[in-house]
Design goal:
Length: 112
């Protein structure tokens, strides 16, 4: 709805319905974020779509994982077990980092 500054007229903007199928946990997490921002899911989706129009594309970078990183979905059980063993060997060799250190770096990246 658009209201004139003098409030002499009210103009209703046409809208369309959009039905989206989304994983329930993703929807719930997104709703919590939007609640914190003080906007509705509908407004958030509208903002996203407006940015698509403005940018003439997705308003953020889409990239594929590097070729040397395999998805667990594509690994065989043998490959998965080998990755676990390699990770454990790295840990024993002192090549790993603490979770606290990793999450600290992630938080810094979110604030820059």
């Amino acid at each position: 709805m658009i209201v004139s500054e003098e409030r002499k007229w009210i103009f209703m903007v046409k809208s369309s319905n959009l039905y989206v199928r989304i994983e329930p946990d993703v929807k719930e997490q997104a709703e919590k974020v939007f609640d914190g921002l003080g906007i509705s899911m509908s407004n958030a989706i509208g903002l996203f779509l407006k940015q698509v129009v403005i940018n003439q594309g997705i308003p953020f970078e889409l990239t594929l994982a590097p070729a040397n990183i395999k998805s667990i979905d594509t690994m065989t059980e043998t490959e998965f077990n080998a990755e676990l063993e390699n990770g454990y060997a790295d840990y024993l060799a002192g090549k790993g980092r603490s979770a606290k250190e990793v999450f600290s770096e992630i938080r810094k990246g979110l604030h820059t």
